[in-house]
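step: validate -> pass
step: tokenize input -> pass
step: predict -> running
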Amino acid sequence: MNNEKDILLKISEGDQRAFTMLFDFYYRHLGHYVFVITESEEETEEIIQDVFIKVWEKRETLQRIDNMKAYLFVLSKNRTLNYLRDKAKARMIEKKWCDENLESSYLIDSYSDQEEYHQIIQEAVSDLPPQQQRVYQLSRQENLKYDEIATQMGLSKTTVKKHMQLALGFLKKNVKDRIENLILPLLVLLSLFF
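step: predict -> pass
step: emit ->
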């Protein structure tokens, strides 16, 4: 990009037109770099937008940057690694929840049948807010992936992921409370006879 130093100076002074020039020049290169890692157009777009938002927010410091291309690629790499870390963390939380609920289902078998457990889950699902309920049903009952759900519901993949996390958190607590409410009377009853 010609006159990069002049453009960075203008951006540091708040020139939005110069910022647009910088964005237009680097967007495709950074997008390709991030897409290779994320394999998601939506996430790539979000990451690149976050990078440029950060550049705009720190525009006063741009004059000190000697190599803007390297700077942008480092920002993109760091933001992408944060995305991958967050995605892995979300998967671990979801797996942990599934594992815990699988354990709970074995406990439930000892005092109740699977239909009763299924009924408890369905009642808890029906208590979810409408969008969380729909996301949960599309994911768990129709086995759709987050991007498929996002397309079907007209939401971003990030929003779908957030709805799913909230739904799973709610269901974990709600199902646990309902099971405890079933077990407690049974334990009281058993204690009267033993």
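step: describe -> Residues 68-109 form the longest helix (42 residues).
step: cleanup -> pass
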